[in-house]
């Protein structure tokens, strides 16, 4: 069981920003707290916006969050196949596997095996996704 409100395979306190611009973020748990203040329906994936609400802030934010985490902490982005052709993205940094947007699945257990690497280029080929990522990054920069 994770000590965090999101899925984490190991303690994340040892993971520090690889990018000096984000030293104020601290660690992934602190980033999570900041993101919970800035996630909104306009940063949510358009296909999920009707379902987004403040009780389920992580809904529709997996890929843009995972690539932002990669910018800050390094590591790789992987995906869990969802069965509809989409992937739910999560991060791997050093030996830590974590998913800052796992809460949207409630008690459902996801398979965090490292079988499906995700490409920033492929995800951001969708203009709206790239724009949401840039908006999330802008809001985070304003916050820190």
Query: What overall form do the CA principal axes indicate?
Result: globular
Enumerate the spans where pLDDT stays under 50 for 5 or more consecutive residues: none
Number of strands: 4
Strand content: 5-15%
Task: Write a concise keyword list for the protein shown above.
144 residues, alpha+beta, four-stranded antiparallel β-sheet, 4 helices, globular
Please give a structural write-up.
The chain has 144 residues and is an alpha+beta fold. It has one domain (23-143). It is 31% helix and 13% strand. The protein is built from four helices and four strands; from the N terminus they run βααβββαα. Helix 2 packs across helix 4 (127-143). The mean pLDDT is 93.
Write the layout of secondary structure elements.
Layout: E1 7-8, H1 28-38, H2 62-73, E2 76-81, E3 87-93, E4 96-99, H3 120-123, H4 127-143
Antiparallel strand pairs: 1-4, 2-3, 3-4
Helix pairs in contact: 2-4
Give the gist of this structure.
With 144 residues, this protein is an alpha+beta fold. It has one domain (23-143).
């Amino acid at each position: 069981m994770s000590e965090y409100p999101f899925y984490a395979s190991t303690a994340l306190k040892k993971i520090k920003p690889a990018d000096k611009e984000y030293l104020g973020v601290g660690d992934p748990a602190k980033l999570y707290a900041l993101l919970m203040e800035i996630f909104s329906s306009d940063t949510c994936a358009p296909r999920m916006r009707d379902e987004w609400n403040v009780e389920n802030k992580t809904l529709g934010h997996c890929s843009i969050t995972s690539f932002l985490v990669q910018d800050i902490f390094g590591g790789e982005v992987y995906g869990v196949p969802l069965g509809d052709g989409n992937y739910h993205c999560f991060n791997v940094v050093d030996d830590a596997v974590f998913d800052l947007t796992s809460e949207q699945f409630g008690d459902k257990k996801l398979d965090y095996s490292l079988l499906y690497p995700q490409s920033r280029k492929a995800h951001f080929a969708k203009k709206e996704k790239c724009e949401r990522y840039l908006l999330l990054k802008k809001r985070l920069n304003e916050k820190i």
